[in-house]
Amino acid sequence: xxxxxxxxxxxxxxxxxxxxxxxxxxxxxxxxxxxxxxxxxxxxxxxxxxxxxxxxxxxxxxxxxxxxxxxxxxxxxxxxxxxxxxxxxxxxxxxxxxxxxxx
Length: 103
Prior knowledge:
The protein is mainly alpha-helical. The chain has 2 domains: about 10-45; about 65-100, Orthogonal Bundle (Arc Repressor Mutant, subunit A), CATH 1.10.10. It has 6 helices and no strands. It has helices at about 10-20, 25-30, 35-45, 65-75, 80-85, 95-100. Helix 1 packs antiparallel against helix 2 (about 25-30), helix 1 crosses helix 3 (about 35-45) and helix 2 packs across helix 3. The longest helix has 12 residues, at about 10-20. The protein is rod-shaped, with a radius of gyration of 26 Å.
């Protein structure tokens, strides 16, 4: 069994846009009259038009917040839970303990 022809740039763009609109692989395959494998390869090969989102959100701990936590902890014998309440950090007590351990 021979190989089929590659998808043209126009067909690749059509496949990519249909996938972005939520069409299934089978539906795209029928519209383009191509094999399922060719369609999957086309969708993978065309770079996405939308910017990919970065994983995770913004960091909860900034350098400024870390400095404040270390400063508060260096003033004496204090518990991490007290420092967390004082600084109003959106962090766990364990994370504050790790900051002291690493510094």
